Automatic annotation (TrEMBL):
Signal peptide: 1-20
Pfam families according to UniProt: NMT1
Gene3D superfamilies listed in its UniProt record: Periplasmic binding protein-like II
Annotated keywords: Signal
SsuA/THI5-like domain sequence ranges: 46-259
Protein's name according to its UniProt entry: ABC transporter substrate-binding protein
Source species: Rarispira pelagica
Ligase among keywords: no
Top-level division of the source organism's lineage: Bacteria
Length: 330
């Protein structure tokens, strides 16, 4: 009897040893065979991207079996890499997805990085620009897109102001502070970066949020996106990526100071004070008024496309229902 017990005990130990070795091999296999995924940014690294870097740094991607690379965009933008199959995901914005789909390129938004449009027109306080009516007689510095002209016209129309009295010049990549030290009087900025920077620099500015004047312009910018083709072919990878990214942004919401330090670890060239202050501001914006980070509404996609069409800025067939999905969010 005793001999049988010993044999049985040795057998059980052997089984557990085999299982333990198998588990080690499985973990090693998962680690060495993680699925490579590339996500392309929309601009230079900034606090809109913090959740991605948090997910990378804290191993959220690795935990879901993904080996994620975050790369800077080429001149043609991240969408071009996704369409060419050279990247799987990219940081985009609602305008880009809308125009692409209307032109027949099937891109789709997977999550809203920020729930509301936090951009607007800013000027140095001494310019005396407090409403769109004050744009008359001033010089606007932008990047030369038809969208800018239409937005300025729409806002001025609400104040019975005359857009023909605005001088519109292209300033390329020159930032707000450099441009407004010269001949430019006002620019379109993102408050979470240039607006915060103005406060840190002690530059007194006036700021006109476009979404507060024209609700149809409260669109999603930026968003995470991919292509219809990739999503349909790789739904499990898409789910894993969005889930891990959402976890990264949730961490940034709950721990803005720590998240800022993580971003600075990957982009040490950024202004530390600006990153920290911007991160604290965006922590309250990422999921503002939403049930969860990333959630998108059909009405936002519908209303913005309708506004573009009303202003002659969107041609072709566009279905708001097909432009986004919430199905991969946690």
């Amino acid at each position: 009897m005793t001999k049988r017990l010993i044999i049985f005990f040795v057998f059980i130990v052997s089984i557990f040893s085999v299982l333990a070795e198998a588990e080690k091999e499985s973990v090693a296999d998962a680690s060495t065979h993680a699925t490579p995924v590339t996500v392309v940014l929309d601009w230079t690294v900034n606090t809109n991207h913090t959740g991605l870097y948090v997910a990378l740094d804290k191993g959220y991607y690795k935990d879901t079996g993904l080996d994620v690379s975050i790369v800077s965009p080429p001149e043609t933008g991240g969408a071009s890499l996704v369409v060419a199959g050279k990247a799987q995901f990219f940081v985009s914005y609602q305008e880009e997805i809308t125009y692409a789909r209307a032109a027949g390129t099937k891109l789709k938004a997977l999550a809203a990085v920020i729930q509301h449009n936090t951009s607007g027109f800013a000027a140095r306080k001494e310019e005396g620009i407090n409403t769109p009516r004050d744009f008359e007689g001033k010089t606007y510095g932008g990047w030369g897109s038809p969208m800018e002209e239409a937005v300025i016209q729409a806002l001025m129309k609400r104040y019975d102001a005359d857009y023909s009295k605005v001088k519109n010049v292209s300033v390329g990549a020159v930032d707000f502070f450099a441009a407004t030290e010269g001949d430019v009087d006002f620019m379109w900025i993102f408050y979470g970066w240039d607006g915060i920077a103005a406060g840190l620099k002690g530059v007194d500015i006036s700021y006109i949020p476009i979404a507060e004047i024209e609700p149809s312009l409260d669109y999603y910018t930026p968003v995470l996106a991919s292509s219809d083709q990739y999503i349909s072919e790789e739904p499990h990878i898409t789910k894993a990526f969005v889930m891990a990214t959402a976890k990264g942004y949730q961490y940034a919401i709950e721990h803005p100071e720590e998240a800022a330090q993580i971003l600075l670890k990957y982009a040490p060239e950024l202004d530390h004070d600006l990153v920290l202050a911007s991160q604290k501001y965006l922590a309250g914006q990422y999921a503002k008024d939403a049930e969860r980070w990333g959630q998108m509404k059909l009405s936002v996609w519908h209303d913005f496309a309708a506004w573009l069409k009303e202003n002659g800025l969107l041609e072709g067939s566009f279905s708001p229902e097909d432009a986004f999905t919430n199905e991969f969010l946690p």
